[in-house]
Amino acid sequence: MAYAHADRLTALDTSFLDLETPDVHMHVGSVGIFESGPLLRPDGGLDFDRILEFAEAGMRRAPRFRQKLARVPLTGNPVWVDDDHFNLLYHIRHTSLPLPGDDRRLKRLVGRIMSEKLDRTKPMWELWFVEGLEDDRFAVISKVHHCLIDGISGVALLGAYMGFDAEYEVDATDHRWIPRPAPGPLGLLGAELTRRAGIPFKMMRQGTGWIQHPLESSRRAMDIVSGVSGTLSNNLSSASETPFNVPIGSHRRFDWTRFDMAAMREVKKKLGGTLNDIALACVAGAVRKQLSADGSDLEDIDFRVMMPVSTRTEDQRGKLGNRVSLLVASLPVGEKDARRRVEAVVEKTRELKKSSQVTGAEALEELSDWTSPALITGASRLAASRRAFNMVVTNVPGPPQPIFLSGAHMLASYPLVPLFENQAVGIALFSYDNVLHWGFNADWDAVPDLHDFVLAVEQEFETLRKL
Fold first, then answer.
1. How many CA atoms does the CB half-sphere of 203 hold within 13 Å?
2. Dihedral (C-alpha) 31, 35, 38, 44: value to the nearest 10 degrees?
3. What is the reported pLDDT for 163?
């Protein structure tokens, strides 16, 4: 007889559920653009039956995508259980763009899809296959709740469907999936009580390690205290008020651009820093231009970006869920000179790498896991209400070589990061095949001129190239 099974969500994963409101949608996403290749039928449409076939096979590598949420009685803590009514056709969707099928119409469609929250009674993800793009292309719009994946695990998920060889095919051997029954209310509650009862023993084991290595443990403890203090201090202080930080609604608009990685490396070589520093400098210059156009006062402005940083270890690679720490850095938006903006960004990121912000964020997550997810959720809500940062900018490394979906070459992949409360724009970057892909998610009403901001990012990069 099959055994009952449930997987507990971490405190960080749970916080992404708790932060969601009717206007704040906590799903991540991407827009992949492909050459149709062998997936194109003679009549010009997509071979959707073939798509469903390899999607079903790929599910075996990502069993979490067949699970839905359940709640532990009394505590209300969420757990993953197998969905005994899982229907692939609900999650894999097929649509088409109206003629002429250009990028502008695709961006509008992405905005509409991302304006709707995911259904919490089902596995929380959707894949939209969009045919009708000009030049014999199609798009895949992914939409996955943030409690399920972070950027790095999202990249790992690509491996469940795609390969580096045009001849790569997912093994479609039929393996019938049998959902495991979910534990009853008493089983869920018993497992949670057992976990909590074991917390003192975990603390005792850590105490033994402290006794055996007192000097090393003392330094670690000091780093943790300093880091947690810094994290809470960041959440309590407020960044400058800007037009990017206004109440948002539920409707979204999406835009993108792309930079050649060779050109970015050349800029990095001449101006210093890392590729991420150059990207942040481009954001700083674009924000300055946008705020100047809006008539904002740039004197002594404190414009902060929150940068998720992966803390995923080697043994956690390929696993879903979130393994990130959230770092906050001030961008030199008030600096007039583009070269000095780069230098200021480089100096700031070097300071961050030496700081204990990562240690503090990890400690806060671990403490929330031991006690209650409400701790990290409360800290996140405090950061949003106090305007601890103005914008999210996240950078996820992807494969450096071309990948293929059942023989169809992926030409580009533009990522999407969710908007937090009073955050009208979010920026995500994804490097793939020697191109840096930028995805801009924005509130529909608060940022009607999103494309102007995208152009400002492009212009700032051209300014840096001329330097």
1. 11
2. 90
3. 81
DSSP state at residue 122? S
The pLDDT value recorded for residue 235 is 52
Tokens 């900018």 correspond to what residue? 393
Whole-number Å distance between alpha carbons of 143 and 126: 5
Measure the CA–CA gap between 444 and 118, rounded to whole angstroms: 19
DSSP string computed for 193-229: HHHHHTHHHHHHHHHHHHHHSHHHHHHHHHHHHHHHH
Ranges of residues in the chain with a pLDDT under 50 are 1, 151, 208-211, 213, 215, 217-229, 231-232, 311-314, 316-322
Q: Would you state the pLDDT for residue 335?
A: 96
C-alpha–C-alpha distance, residues 83 and 69, integer Å: 9
Q: Are 392 and 407 in contact (CB under 8 A)?
A: no
Q: What is the pLDDT of residue 102?
A: 95
| 159, 403 contact by CB (below 8 A) | no
Q: What's the distance, CA 241 to chain centroid? A: 25
Contact 342, 271 (CB under 8 A): yes
The closest alpha carbon to 426, from 1, 29, 4, 106, belongs to 29
pLDDT value of residue 353: 76
> What does the alpha-carbon distance between residue 147 and residue 13 come to, in Å, rounded to a whole number?
4
Distance of alpha carbon 207 from alpha carbon 215, whole angstroms: 13
CA distances from 185 to 65, 79, 283 (A): 23, 12, 49
Structure tokens at 72: 């532990």
Tokens for 129?
């296959």
Query: Could you give the CA distance from residue 143 to residue 121 in angstroms, rounded to a whole number?
Result: 16
Residue tagged 């105490």 (tokens): 207
* Secondary structure of residue 408 in the 3-state scheme: strand
Residue 250's identity, in one-letter code, is S
Per-residue model confidence (pLDDT) at position 369:
53
Using alpha carbons, list the distances in angstroms from residue 17 to 70, 269, 423: 12, 42, 18
